[in-house]
Specification:
A two-stranded antiparallel sheet has the order 1-2. It has one domain. α1 crosses α3. With 88 residues, it is mainly alpha-helical. Helix content is 51%, strand content 7%. It has four helices and two strands.
């Protein structure tokens, strides 16, 4: 079996976390048919928003933000991402 490169590993981890997050956030009957394409449409590549109080630009829950988290810690869990983004 061929070993995954770092780039492919990070992409696979990112897609897996995005899928888990979406399945957790939506109702169970809608989460049965989650594919990579559906996940990318729902969360998107980039999503910026500006905090009204501080004026700091943040990344929303998107591919780029989750990928940055995975780059920092390749074995980050869904629970850690949810607490950092205040998703409950």
């Amino acid at each position: 079996m061929q070993k995954l490169s770092t780039k492919r590993f990070l992409k696979a981890q990112t897609i897996q976390l995005m899928t888990e997050l979406l399945i957790d956030l939506i109702p169970p009957e809608e989460g049965m048919d989650m594919t990579k394409d559906v996940v990318m449409k729902q969360l998107g590549k980039k999503s910026y928003y500006k905090d009204q109080d501080t004026g700091v630009i943040h990344l929303g829950l998107c591919y780029k933000q989750i990928r940055n988290e995975v780059k920092k810690n390749p074995y980050v869990t869904m629970q850690q991402i949810k607490t950092k983004n205040k998703l409950g």
